[in-house]
Amino acid sequence: MSKEEELYVQTRDKGDRVYKIIVIGDPSIGKTSLIRKFVKHQFEKDYIPTVGVSISKQPITINVGGKDVKIDLMLWDLAGQPQFFLLHKVYFNGANGVLLGFDLTRTHTYSNLKSWHAELIKDGLIDLPMVLVGNKSDLTEDRKISLAHVDHLKEQLTIPDYVETSALTGQNVDLLFETIGRRIIERNP
Question: How many whole angstroms from its chain centre is CA 93?
């Protein structure tokens, strides 16, 4: 068990409000960059693929029904490369929410969302709160996925929330994590 996994178990056992979020999608869509921007307020231009899983913890305060609720998000950044798929079931255990991401500039990452969603169904995670994430919104000239495409997919997969983000500029990064946090709190008051 890694240091991060041990921290997750220890924190959860203390009775703190800790929620495990799995962040999934194809390689190089910006999963790690989004998490780094949210947790460390940094952006790294160099692409370094995640090997297996990387875990980060970030406290967040969410206003729900006029009341501030403090929670900790344990963000599990799962490798998107096919050689790591066998590990996903283990990493999915205990998840409270899912961020399902794609790159707005690469159509195949959008098309592959159905396969990622099918994997969640196969592993019994269909009832978890999910948010679709279209990343790299700053690359407006290179955009390939329209909002109409996203709306169609949201309907097909019955995922109500969609957030467009840019890890580079920070656009909607906090909103993304607040949205999944709020959905989890609504299910676990």
Answer: 15
